[in-house]
């Protein structure tokens, strides 16, 4: 629960980046030119940008979030409290399973790829090129690093 609260506080900054649409009321359409990028939550390593397309990751309910990462970016082994449903929009995501970041065991997922992981499944990702992924899942969303020392908030 503490991890979800920490992430929720981190994502608050995303609220100013996009006007959240809800499932109630009008429909939502977003063109590439409409995406408003801003700094990713501090629970992620520095250098990534994020854009909320739909919903609110800090609240219960469906949301869609895009994450843009630079070449060389990596997220250490971690888990999430809810399903993680990801589409690779551009670039390539290298996804590995387990509590150790063994890059030789990762699978390269190019643009157009999709993956879904159940709550609590340990995994890691790294990127050899600028990549955009879209996470569509339910909130409140959070991240818990397998090794607490990998949490970027611990080093701040």
3D architecture notes:
It comes from Rhizobium sullae (Rhizobium hedysari). InterPro entries: DUF4437 (IPR028013), RmlC-like_jellyroll (IPR014710), RmlC_Cupin_sf (IPR011051). This is Cupin domain-containing protein. Keywords: Plasmid, Signal. The protein has a single domain, classed as Jelly Rolls, CATH 2.60.120. 6% of the residues lie in helices and 38% in strands. It contains 1 helix and 11 strands. The strands form 2 sheets. Strands 1-2-3-10-5-8 form a 6-stranded antiparallel β-sheet, with no helix packed on it. A 5-stranded antiparallel β-sheet has the order 7-6-9-4-11, with no helix packed on it. The longest helix is centred in the first third of the chain and has 10 residues.
Summarize the topology.
Blueprint: H1 2-11, E1 38-39, E2 49-54, E3 61-69, E4 74-79, E5 84-90, E6 92-97, E7 107-110, E8 114-117, E9 123-126, E10 131-139, E11 144-145
Antiparallel strand pairs: 1-2, 2-3, 3-10, 4-9, 4-11, 5-8, 5-10, 6-7, 6-9
Total beta-strand segments? 11
**Residue-averaged pLDDT, rounded?**
86
Number of domains: 1
What is the ordering of alpha helices and beta strands? HEEEEEEEEEEE
Adjacency order of strands in the biggest sheet: 1-2-3-10-5-8
- Which regions are unreliable across 5 or more consecutive residues at pLDDT < 50? 1-22
**Which percent bin holds the helix content?**
under 10%
As for the CATH topology, it is Jelly Rolls
**Which word captures the global form?**
globular
Largest sheet geometry: 6 strands, antiparallel
What proportion of the residues form beta strands (DSSP E)? 35-45%
What is Rg? 15 Å
CATH class: Mainly Beta
Class derived from helix and strand content: mainly beta
Architecture (CATH level 2) name: Sandwich
Number of helices, where a helix is a run of at least 4 consecutive DSSP H or I residues? 1
Q: CATH superfamily membership, which one?
A: Jelly Rolls
Distance linking N and C termini: 21 Å
